[in-house]
Amino acid sequence: MENTQTNAMPRIGDKAPEFKAVTTQGEINFPADYSGSWVILFSHPADFTPVCTSEFMTFASMEAQFAKANTKLVGLSVDGLYSHIAWLRTIKEKIEYKGMKNVEVNFPLIEDITMSVAGKYGMMMPGESSTKAVRAVFFIDPKGIIRTIIYYPLSLGRNFQELYRVVVGLQTADAFSVALPADWQPGDDVIVPTAGSCGVAKQRMESKEEMKCYDWFFCTKKLDKEKVLSTILKK
Fold first, then answer.
1. CA distances, 220 to each of 134, 187, 190, 202 (Å)
2. Are residues 58 and 97 in the same domain?
3. What is the rounded CA–CA span in Å between residue 204 and residue 198?
4. Looking at per-residue confidence, does 8 or 130 come out higher?
5. 219 is catalytic
6. Which of 63, 93, 113, 126 is the most buried (most CB within 10 A)?
7. H helices then E strands: how many in the chain?
8. How far apart are CA 202 and CA 222, in angstroms?
9. Which of 52-61, 144-153, 167-176, 204-213 has the lowest mean pLDDT?
C-alpha cells in the first residue's frame, strides 16, 4: 500500500505540526521551543551536495540578519547526525564560495533518517525523489502558525533575498494592518484594506490618512521605510 503520509502537506493558517528531534545543536521540541519568535523551517535534499552547500553557507551568513527580524532558522534533511556534523565541518574548513569562507553553521540541522518530520511537513515528493526531501520553506509565526510555504525542486537553489523579504513583509502586514503589493520592499507604498465603497474610501482618506485610490477596491498609502524597519528589526 502506498504511504500517503509523505504526500501530506500542512496548509497556510494551520498550526505547525509538532515533533521532537535530534539536531546538530541538541534536542529540540518544535515549535514549542520557538514560541515568541518567527521561525524558518527548511529542508534540503542531502548533505555533501553542491546546491545545498551554497544554500547553507548563505543561510549561515544571513543568520544575524534574520535574528534582527526576530527570526530563527531550523534546517532538516533525511541524513543522519554524523553526516550533518561532517558536512558542516567541511563547509567551515574547506569551502569558499562567493566571498563566503570559514562559514560556521550555528543553527540546528535536524536528523530525520526515518523521514518522520519530512512526512509531517510534506517535504517528500515521490515524483521528484522518494529518498530526498525537496527544498521546502515554512515560515512560522510566534504563535506557531504557518504563514507562508514555498517549495523548490532539487535542481533550483532558493532566492534568499526573497526569503528575507517574506519575513519582513509578513511582520509589516501584521504590525500595520496592511497588505503588500507585488515586489514590495520596505519604503514602498502599501495597500490599504478594501474600504467597501467609494464613499467610505473618501471618508477614510479625508479623516485619517492620505491615500491614493486607483479605484474603490485598490487604495495605497505611504509607509516610511524607517518606520517599518524600526518596528520590525531589533536594535
1. 37, 13, 5, 13
2. yes
3. 10
4. 130
5. no
6. 63
7. 7, 10
8. 16
9. 204-213
User: Are residues 112 and 192 both part of a single domain?
Assistant: no
CA distance linking residue 196 with residue 194, whole number of Å:
6
Contact by Cβ (8 Å): 124, 8? no
Q: How far apart are CA 164 and CA 153, in angstroms?
A: 19
pTM: 0.90
Question: Cell 479623516 appears where?
Answer: 207
H helix intervals, 9-127? 50-61, 63-68, 81-94, 116-120
Coarse DSSP helix, strand, coil percentages of the chain, rounded to the nearest 5 percent: 35, 25, 45
* Strand, helix or coil for residue 137: strand
**Which pLDDT belongs to residue 3?**
42
Short-list 70, 75, 78, 79, CA closest to 58: 75
d(Cα 173, Cα 180) in Å, to the nearest integer? 7
Q: Which domain holds residue 196?
A: 177-232
Q: Are residues 184 and 153 in the same domain?
A: no
- Dist. CA 47–CA 187, nearest whole Å: 38
What is the structure's pLDDT at 215? 86
CATH number of the domain enclosing 34:
3.40.30.10
Q: How far apart are CA 218 and CA 224, in angstroms?
A: 20
Question: Catalytic: which of 52, 198, 213, 219?
Answer: 52
